[in-house]
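Title: Prediction job returns without error message
Component: structure pipeline
Severity: low
Priority: P3
Assignee: unassigned

Description:
Job completed but the reporter wants confirmation the result is attached to the right record. Sequence as submitted:
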Amino acid sequence: MSDDDFEQALRANIAGVFYMTRAAWPALRRQGSGTVVNISSLAAVDPFPGFAVYGACKAWVSLFTKAADDEGRPLGIRVFAIAPGAVETAMLRQNFPDIPAEQTLAPDEVAGMIEAVCEPRASHASGQTIFIRK
């Protein structure tokens, strides 16, 4: 992995999550409620060969989610991480062309889980990383 690839992974998977959460936090705090949904990955606990840095970044997302939820819960802010397995996207096909389509999630399945954790009935799971896979 080149230095540039390493920096790109950090910017996309760690810095992006941090800066977006920090930007939204004051508004969520002012309104006394809100939900932050971060995207982790199954790679956080089972990294793909050659993707150790990606998996480590996604593990950071899961830990950051828990820490942010601990700080946000008294303010009415809930924080979740959704950690999908393989999702049927162009990027997946570019990097892993041999994964059978029947073993991948449709993007709508991931979106549905994101929508579900935004519902009040999901409050009990706040702070958790929710793994979804086929």
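Comment from assignee: result matches the submitted record. DSSP finds four helices and three strands in the chain.
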